[in-house]
Amino acid sequence: MTVARGRKRDETSRQAILSATFALLEEQGFDRLSIEGVAARAGTAKTTIYRWWPSKGVLAVEAFLATTEPLIAFPDSESPREDIMRQMRSLAALYRGPTGRFVREMIGAAQHDAAMSTAFVSGFLEPRRAQAKAVFHRGVAAGEFRADLDADIAIDALYAPIYYRLLASGGAIDDAFVIGHAELVLRGLQP
Fold this sequence. Notes:
191 residues; Arc Repressor Mutant, subunit A; 2 domains; elongated; mainly alpha; 0% strand; 9 helices
């Protein structure tokens, strides 16, 4: 996702920086995150971080992705419908914790940081959409979803309420909400 500037990255240092960044994001949030704090926690020089990441925002997005991708991956079971439900529940569980707080802050900051916005869209949103589309296509092939399903609209219908609650309403993103909402939308996608 990020293009390294200068010397080639040392993978051990890179992982230490990403781990330190994510830990600090969870402890103090994006707004209070500093390159100085990351360098101290990771045991690296600030210049190393500045050489490898163009901004605090891009570093935060990469740390978020490196840590959360395995937690919110789509399962691949016999039922694409159940795979979507499980992934939505995993995402909601992640957003109920400290990660939800700093994701709100990062999305807000990305409105004024083009590089961060690009990193978030290309590193997080687009890959999640591509994975969701693949699950929907499996579901159409398996007969779980209508043949005329528009995967983009289905993704928006399923996930937009989670982000609305995370960013605007403050409503609960608990299992009851996720399951009830997903059941409502997925019922409309059945053949």
